[in-house]
Amino acid sequence: MSEPTNTTPLPIQPVERPILCSPYAEPTAHWVYDTATGQAERVPGRRQAFYWFRTQRVMDEQLRLGFLAEEESESLPLVNALRRDVKRWREGGYEGATEITKELLAYWWREDRPLRLFFCQLEAAETVIFLNEIRLGGRYLRFNPAFTDEHLAQLQDQPADGGLDPLTRLGLKMATGSGKTVVMAMLIAWAFCNRGKVPSDARFPQAALIVCPNLTIKERLQVLRPEMTGNYYEEFDLVPARMRPLLAKGKVLITNWHLFLPESEHAEGGQSYTVVNKGPEGPEAFARRVLGDLHDTAPLIVFNDEAHHAWRPWQESEGAQESELEAATVWVTGLDKLHQAVGIRCCVDLSATPFYIQGSGYVEGSPFPWLVSDFGLVDAIESGLVKIPRLPVSDNTGRPDPKYFRLWQHIAEHNLQPGDWLPGRARRPKPEAVYREAEAALQTLAGQWVERFEYIQQATDEKDKTPPVLIVVCDNTDLSEVFFRRLSGEQEIEVEEETSPGKTRTVKQTVYGRGGIFPDYFSNSEGFRPTVRIDTKLLDAAESDDPTVSRQEAAEQLRKIVATVGQEGGPGEHVRCVVAVAMLNEGWDAHNVTHILGVRAFGSQLLCEQVVGRGLRRMDYTPDPDTGLLAEEYVDIYGVPFSLIPFKGRTTGAKAPEDRPKNHVRALPERAAYEIEFPVVEGYAFALHRNVITADIEAVEPLHIAPEREPTAVFVKPRVVYEPGSPSLAGPGGFEMQDRQAYYESTHLQTIEFEIARQIVDVLTTDRAQEPSVAGSPKLRGQSRHQLFPQVLRLV
Known about the structure:
The protein is of the alpha/beta class. Helix 20 links the parallel strand 20 and strand 21. Helix 10 packs across helix 11, helix 14 runs antiparallel to helix 15 and helix 22 packs across helix 23.
């Protein structure tokens, strides 16, 4: 397909107000694009779950439009069916769930919480609970579920050899920044509190294993350990105070998939010995090594974070990167071994992009079949959970400017000359030529960054100078080196170093100069490096938790810088620009990314979402008191040509709209001793300082029951007799005298006493306390029922 010219506007159009819905309630509206005109229309109701897939279109009209020429969408019928079931279950009061589950769900849904939970978090947790506790638990439903028993079979991930039990996998698709870690904490609390209450109920594991792809994520997930200071259970108030002891009975283990690598047959106690030859590691030995203390508390609930790495490779997989195949194989094979050895109740897979990759053996971009919940990037934008992408638009049309929207295609297909290409069969442009053509876009985007940076420096508190961040995503390492050198002024040169008289060696030396793009802001120096280039191989080595990989000091230093971008007091606090190849590693948690430049080919909507997602985490989550919606925050994006995502437009020469960063009010460290804390009140209980219940038994008028005079003393029961000649109902013998003996034989005396005491306490503690039957008694509504009851029972 040819690139549209500047005179052929792209049909996609921005929307004025992308945020439509409250983040705390089910979406009530969504944007729909007309693929013929590109106009966005607000449609009432929630968007159906769907995914993008690649296809080859041949219709001339579609090619002429240049709009989603290779992208189509398809609904996810099973997810949509399960959504309806979960909603009916919620509206029915969570029928069939345990009392602990009902109490937790009510606690999470409370609107007066200090930190309200997002709807997408609540729905994701409800879905897993509904499937585990009700559907997989065999509980009765009063309605016919749209998600049938046949659909449940699709949640089983069967090993290729067919000899092992399949894993039950529940996939949660949640956009970057929508709170996946909080959902894990909610589900751990649900499992542990239920199991702590009923230790024999195996539906609720008391051990949780969390598997992640790298060391940075492993460190950040430590907040899921209940015993850790600053854990999410307390930070987000996920567990009522009385349930905290139940939560503490469970155990959480957080590890990398690298721990699943087979142990050497010559290893013993973490050391390798030539004389040791244990043979292949069996499932039981593997489980004991990986789980440690968790081994004896199985079955497990497993959480696979960034679970798009945890797929089962097809036997004929070709074309996938070797590292991706290794991670997928080791990860899932390790889960199979744990399931075989100790049992896994279910695997909860969390990812923003739970799709098969190229070379996996499956259709590229197709979703995992065990996907059960979907709240993707488009939904997150419309609910205000993430920043709004802001694209460069033309002054005359208001539509994306082709020059900056499809930057890579614009450069490669229109601007490069024959001499700008490298020799060889692979058609690859020279890095210097690409930079030459992309420099104008970089200058424009960097200028907008400078404007925002200056505002922060002038308008915010002296102690809060965390800068915004510009990300440059390049096609290859050679191109990233050029961009890094032009931005930072830093480069490595080779110099001759004398090692001994008459002998020298060539060594690399770092020299610093002035960058070519706003040098006062991005140039590096000996003691200050605001521009960072990510060496992918170096960072991968640092992120690996494989004990056989030796991490260099430089690699670990780079990892810590990248992991703390935007965090006050961290080594990455002062980073202003990051130059990377392809995408940044998972675990990138910076909230202060404001600008992204893509200088590479983007072959699919999925890749666009992955790159854009690195800059979408919000800075502030305070809703507008008038509308209930979150305020708009933006990330300006050049060169990432995504489609059908609600976005704002910004002309290249215009000043930024009023999305200024907010000033955060913080206490001075020296005044920490004056801090006042307010408790979270879950309820009230009234203490009785004296026995307030008295009864003058002698003054109570006695009640005499005389069977011969009182019709209530006895009752008659009609006797039906069917034999011929028997007395009729009206004739002699048609009635049988009864007394209370049968009732007393079937009902314990203590039950009668308790019921009488309950009714008396009810009269004393409600508005009925002023009835004539208790005239003269004080109104005791404020008293504690559980303290009144024993006193009344003694009198009864």
